[in-house]
Amino acid sequence: MSNRALEFTAERLLHILRSLPAVNAYIVGFSGGADSTALLHALGKIRQELGVPLSAAHVNHAIHPDADLWQQQCKDFCHQQGIELTCLDINLDKRSGKGLEADARHLRYQAISALLGPADCLLTAHHADDQAETLFLNLMRGSGVEGLTAMPESRPLGKGLLQRPLLRFTNSALKDYLCNNGLAWIEDPSNQSMNHDRNFVRHEIIPRLEQRWPGVSQRLLLTRQAMTSARRLLEGLATDYLVVNLGHPYVLHLTPDCMDKPEMLRLVVRCWIKQADAPGIPAYRLGSFCNQVQQAVSGHKVSLRWDGWILRLYRQQLWVQPDSIVQDCPALGWPEGQGVIELGEDVGQMLLGTAATTGNGPEAAAPEYPVGEFSVGSRVSLDEHSIYLGGVHKSLKNVFQNAGIPPWLRDSIPICSLDGEPVAVGDWCFNERFARWLSENSTTLNWRPIHPLLQFIRTQQHALRY
């Protein structure tokens, strides 16, 4: 293993970019610091070879008194290089509690990702030293295999991609490039503050380790490479499981084999949560949740809330969704002759009409109307909590349980009533008398839910029915 730093050149940068996924345009995250200045200048040298538009974006955090001065310096540099610059302001007044660094990073990516169209690419100037620091910080956080892979060279971001083409170069190699080209850069004083964990690792820990084990950054990157290989194998195993057992992006079936293996359960859930575009669950919280899942008995409530999401166990399935209440079905009378009734942004619509008129359009009109007071609502709005099926009255609770519908979604299921008596649950479970009326009058009752989990429930019930 050589400790010699790889020289940074525009030609090497071009070779790396050509090895990464092709894009429609490059936008460089430009702070004016040494790393992003070297990246942007080198890109300017090879812009003809890139074959796609090149621009830059500067985010003004408005934290430091010189923030506006730095923004102007970035404008001047881009003007000199003939590169278009977009300046973005972010507001750090609302804090998440995760720390200034984390909040600024989140808002920075959020602001720039909004600029990306399909297959557009944000280029950042993270380098080998940043990678080693990230790996070390993740070690201190007790991260698993995924955390020890540190930063990927390319990943999705918004509608486009985030790529980090400088991960093979050290900070010193980038500064050598700047000096050789007579380029100045901005020094942010906050990069020297020991209040930030990364700065402490950069200025105190890595230099001490370097004294004992020269080339420590390269040594740490070898660990990252090994962890990346292990991660790919594990993600392949989890993906194979999800292909078979994922009934819906937000609903995962747990097999006994998975339930009996704690490591497999954590791996599958972690991979699934990532696929659902939910934030990662802290390792210790995920471990605790999986332990509860494995020990749960029938009827035991197991749930986990984190970062605006909620994960729940119901029977042998895990359900995940943003942590907001799914709207209950409102209680409404169904006016005679009206084919469509609106039930809200989650519950959607109910339609009553002929098979020909209850397709996908809102024009359905009921050719016949049930004799009596016809209405729709949720179970909580009803006086009668049973439905007549198979010659006996069955409680709505029992109907929902047999259908495998989780308790927290049952109040969103529309129930149609005739003269106060439930005659339909959703559009799959009908009282015999009401079903006969529908058949005799060539009429159909259709529910069109909007919330993804309600759509899944309806699809699942129709598959079971037919």
Task: Explain how this protein is built.
- The chain has 466 residues and is an alpha+beta fold.
- It folds into three domains: 10-214, 3-Layer(aba) Sandwich (Rossmann fold); 228-322, Chorismate Mutase Domain, subunit A (Up-down Bundle); 332-465, no CATH class.
- Helices cover 41% and strands 21% of the residues.
- It has 16 helices and 21 strands.
- The chain has helices at residues 10-19, 34-45, 47-50, 67-81, 100-113, 128-140, 145-148, 171-180, 197-212, 216-245, 256-259, 262-275, 283-295, 396-403, 432-440, 452-465, and strands at 25-29, 54-60, 84-89, 120-123, 154-157, 160-163, 246-248, 251-253, 302-306, 309-314, 317-322, 332-333, 340-344, 348-354, 374-377, 386-389, 392-395, 415-418, 421-425, 429-430, 443-448.
- The strands form five sheets. A six-stranded mixed sheet has the order 3-2-1-4-6-5, sandwiched between helices. The chain has a five-stranded antiparallel sheet with strand order 7-8-11-10-9. It has a five-stranded antiparallel sheet with strand order 12-15-18-19-20.
- Strand 18 and strand 19 form a beta hairpin.
- Helix 10 crosses helix 12.
- It is elongated.
- The termini are far apart.
- 30% of the residues are buried.
Count of separate DSSP helical elements:
16
CATH-level-2 architecture of the largest domain: 3-Layer(aba) Sandwich
What does the average pLDDT come to?
Answer: 89
CATH superfamily of the largest domain: HUPs
Instruction: Choose one word for the global shape.
Output: elongated
Strand order of the largest sheet: 3-2-1-4-6-5
* Range of helix content: 40-55%
Q: What is the CATH topology descriptor of the largest domain?
A: Rossmann fold
Number of domains: 3
**Radius of gyration, taken over Cα atoms and rounded to an integer in Å:** 29 Å
Measured by DSSP, the beta-strand proportion falls in 15-25%
